[in-house]
Amino acid sequence: MVGDEEYEVFVKTDFTPDDFNADIHNLLYNHWNEIRGNQRLPSRADFNPAAIAPALPYILMLEVHPGNPMRFRFRLSGTETVEVMGINAMGHWIDEFPHTKEIIARYKRLVETGQPYYNSDKLHWAVKDFHHYTALTLPFSDDGKNVNILISTNYYF
Questions:
Q1: Closest Cα partner for 135 from 149, 113, 150, 147?
Q2: Which of 2, 73, 85, 153 is 20 to 30 A from 121, comparing alpha carbons?
Q3: Number of H helices, E strands in the chain
Q4: In whole angstroms, what is the distance from residue 76 CA to residue 74 CA?
Q5: End-to-end CA distance of the chain
Protein backbone atom coordinates (compact mmCIF):
# COMPACT_ATOMS: atom_id res chain seq x y z
CA MET A 1 0.00 0.00 0.00
CA VAL A 2 1.18 3.48 -0.78
CA GLY A 3 0.88 5.90 2.11
CA ASP A 4 -0.76 9.27 1.51
CA GLU A 5 2.49 11.02 2.40
CA GLU A 6 4.18 9.29 -0.57
CA TYR A 7 1.31 9.72 -2.96
CA GLU A 8 1.04 12.28 -5.76
CA VAL A 9 -2.33 13.37 -7.14
CA PHE A 10 -2.07 14.58 -10.74
CA VAL A 11 -3.73 14.91 -14.13
CA LYS A 12 -1.42 14.87 -17.16
CA THR A 13 -2.30 15.55 -20.78
CA ASP A 14 1.36 15.65 -21.80
CA PHE A 15 2.12 12.12 -20.60
CA THR A 16 4.28 9.46 -22.24
CA PRO A 17 4.06 5.69 -21.73
CA ASP A 18 7.05 6.03 -19.37
CA ASP A 19 4.67 7.74 -16.93
CA PHE A 20 2.39 4.68 -16.65
CA ASN A 21 2.56 2.59 -13.49
CA ALA A 22 0.76 -0.45 -14.96
CA ASP A 23 0.98 -2.51 -18.15
CA ILE A 24 -2.79 -2.22 -18.66
CA HIS A 25 -2.33 1.45 -19.52
CA ASN A 26 0.35 0.58 -22.10
CA LEU A 27 -1.90 -2.02 -23.72
CA LEU A 28 -4.78 0.42 -24.14
CA TYR A 29 -2.59 3.34 -25.24
CA ASN A 30 -0.70 1.29 -27.84
CA HIS A 31 -3.94 -0.13 -29.29
CA TRP A 32 -5.55 3.34 -29.36
CA ASN A 33 -2.57 4.76 -31.25
CA GLU A 34 -2.55 1.81 -33.64
CA ILE A 35 -6.23 2.17 -34.61
CA ARG A 36 -6.01 5.95 -34.63
CA GLY A 37 -3.28 6.01 -37.26
CA ASN A 38 -3.12 9.54 -38.70
CA GLN A 39 -6.58 10.47 -37.41
CA ARG A 40 -7.07 12.73 -34.42
CA LEU A 41 -9.70 10.40 -32.94
CA PRO A 42 -10.15 6.67 -33.57
CA SER A 43 -13.55 5.08 -34.02
CA ARG A 44 -15.05 2.81 -31.37
CA ALA A 45 -15.88 0.41 -34.23
CA ASP A 46 -12.13 -0.13 -34.76
CA PHE A 47 -11.51 -0.94 -31.10
CA ASN A 48 -10.67 -4.64 -30.66
CA PRO A 49 -11.08 -5.86 -27.06
CA ALA A 50 -9.00 -8.98 -27.85
CA ALA A 51 -6.00 -6.71 -28.49
CA ILE A 52 -6.04 -5.62 -24.84
CA ALA A 53 -7.40 -8.83 -23.24
CA PRO A 54 -5.28 -8.62 -20.04
CA ALA A 55 -6.59 -5.08 -19.43
CA LEU A 56 -10.30 -5.88 -19.85
CA PRO A 57 -10.99 -6.50 -16.13
CA TYR A 58 -9.78 -2.94 -15.45
CA ILE A 59 -11.66 -1.14 -18.20
CA LEU A 60 -14.47 1.38 -18.17
CA MET A 61 -16.37 2.46 -21.27
CA LEU A 62 -18.63 5.48 -21.07
CA GLU A 63 -21.11 6.96 -23.53
CA VAL A 64 -20.98 10.74 -23.91
CA HIS A 65 -24.43 12.37 -23.85
CA PRO A 66 -24.06 15.99 -25.00
CA GLY A 67 -26.34 18.62 -23.62
CA ASN A 68 -26.54 20.95 -20.71
CA PRO A 69 -25.42 19.32 -18.57
CA MET A 70 -23.23 16.91 -20.51
CA ARG A 71 -23.64 13.47 -18.97
CA PHE A 72 -21.77 10.19 -19.05
CA ARG A 73 -23.31 6.72 -18.83
CA PHE A 74 -21.35 3.56 -18.14
CA ARG A 75 -21.60 1.19 -21.09
CA LEU A 76 -19.10 -1.33 -19.73
CA SER A 77 -17.37 -1.96 -16.43
CA GLY A 78 -14.61 -4.57 -16.16
CA THR A 79 -14.80 -7.28 -13.51
CA GLU A 80 -11.98 -5.88 -11.35
CA THR A 81 -13.57 -2.44 -11.45
CA VAL A 82 -16.90 -3.98 -10.40
CA GLU A 83 -15.17 -5.68 -7.45
CA VAL A 84 -13.42 -2.49 -6.36
CA MET A 85 -16.55 -0.33 -6.67
CA GLY A 86 -18.82 -2.96 -5.15
CA ILE A 87 -21.38 -2.43 -7.95
CA ASN A 88 -21.68 -3.04 -11.66
CA ALA A 89 -22.03 0.51 -12.93
CA MET A 90 -23.15 -0.56 -16.42
CA GLY A 91 -26.21 1.47 -17.43
CA HIS A 92 -25.77 3.98 -14.60
CA TRP A 93 -24.89 7.65 -15.00
CA ILE A 94 -21.59 8.66 -13.40
CA ASP A 95 -23.27 11.57 -11.63
CA GLU A 96 -25.35 9.05 -9.64
CA PHE A 97 -22.22 8.17 -7.65
CA PRO A 98 -20.60 10.22 -4.86
CA HIS A 99 -17.18 11.87 -5.21
CA THR A 100 -17.37 12.17 -9.02
CA LYS A 101 -17.45 15.95 -9.53
CA GLU A 102 -13.74 16.16 -10.45
CA ILE A 103 -13.95 13.07 -12.65
CA ILE A 104 -16.90 14.55 -14.54
CA ALA A 105 -14.98 17.80 -15.02
CA ARG A 106 -12.03 15.85 -16.48
CA TYR A 107 -14.36 13.91 -18.79
CA LYS A 108 -15.97 17.14 -20.02
CA ARG A 109 -12.57 18.67 -20.71
CA LEU A 110 -11.53 15.55 -22.63
CA VAL A 111 -14.72 15.67 -24.74
CA GLU A 112 -14.21 19.37 -25.49
CA THR A 113 -10.51 19.07 -26.36
CA GLY A 114 -10.19 15.49 -27.62
CA GLN A 115 -7.03 15.33 -25.49
CA PRO A 116 -6.41 12.03 -23.64
CA TYR A 117 -5.23 12.20 -20.05
CA TYR A 118 -3.48 10.10 -17.44
CA ASN A 119 -4.31 10.74 -13.81
CA SER A 120 -3.60 9.55 -10.32
CA ASP A 121 -5.95 10.15 -7.42
CA LYS A 122 -7.30 8.93 -4.11
CA LEU A 123 -9.97 6.25 -4.32
CA HIS A 124 -13.06 7.33 -2.39
CA TRP A 125 -15.54 4.57 -3.20
CA ALA A 126 -13.62 1.28 -3.00
CA VAL A 127 -15.11 -1.62 -1.07
CA LYS A 128 -11.80 -3.48 -1.29
CA ASP A 129 -8.60 -2.41 0.48
CA PHE A 130 -7.39 0.01 -2.18
CA HIS A 131 -6.69 3.67 -1.51
CA HIS A 132 -5.48 5.08 -4.83
CA TYR A 133 -5.81 4.57 -8.54
CA THR A 134 -4.35 5.63 -11.84
CA ALA A 135 -6.43 5.95 -14.99
CA LEU A 136 -5.67 6.41 -18.65
CA THR A 137 -8.74 7.86 -20.38
CA LEU A 138 -8.92 8.00 -24.16
CA PRO A 139 -11.45 9.54 -26.57
CA PHE A 140 -13.24 7.78 -29.44
CA SER A 141 -15.45 9.25 -32.15
CA ASP A 142 -17.91 7.73 -34.60
CA ASP A 143 -17.66 10.72 -36.95
CA GLY A 144 -13.97 11.58 -36.50
CA LYS A 145 -14.83 14.97 -34.97
CA ASN A 146 -17.03 14.63 -31.88
CA VAL A 147 -16.02 12.49 -28.92
CA ASN A 148 -18.88 10.11 -28.14
CA ILE A 149 -17.13 7.30 -26.23
CA LEU A 150 -14.50 7.33 -23.50
CA ILE A 151 -12.48 4.22 -22.70
CA SER A 152 -10.36 4.07 -19.58
CA THR A 153 -8.07 1.58 -17.89
CA ASN A 154 -8.05 1.89 -14.10
CA TYR A 155 -5.28 0.48 -11.92
CA TYR A 156 -6.09 0.22 -8.21
CA PHE A 157 -3.54 0.09 -5.39
A1: 150
A2: 73
A3: 3, 6
A4: 6
A5: 6
Question: Are 21 and 152 contacting, i.e. CB atoms less than 8 angstroms apart?
Answer: no
Q: Does domain 4-38+58-156 have CATH number 3.40.50.720?
A: no
Residues 6+ apart with CB under 8 A from 81: 57, 58, 59, 60, 89, 154
Mean pLDDT computed over every residue of the chain: 92
Rounded CA-CA distance 40/146 in Å is 10
Q: Is the pTM of this model over 0.85?
A: yes
Amino acid, res. 8: E
**pLDDT one-digit tens code per residue, 8-24:** 789 999 999 999 999 99
Query: Which range among 14-18, 49-53, 64-68, 85-89 shows the weakest confidence by mean pLDDT?
Result: 85-89
Contacts with 5 (C-beta within 8 Å, 6 or more apart), sequence order:
none
Q: What would the pLDDT profile of 98-128 be if each residue is shown by its tens digit?
A: 889 999 999 999 999 999 999 998 877 656 6
Helix spans in the chain (H)? 23-36, 79-85, 101-113
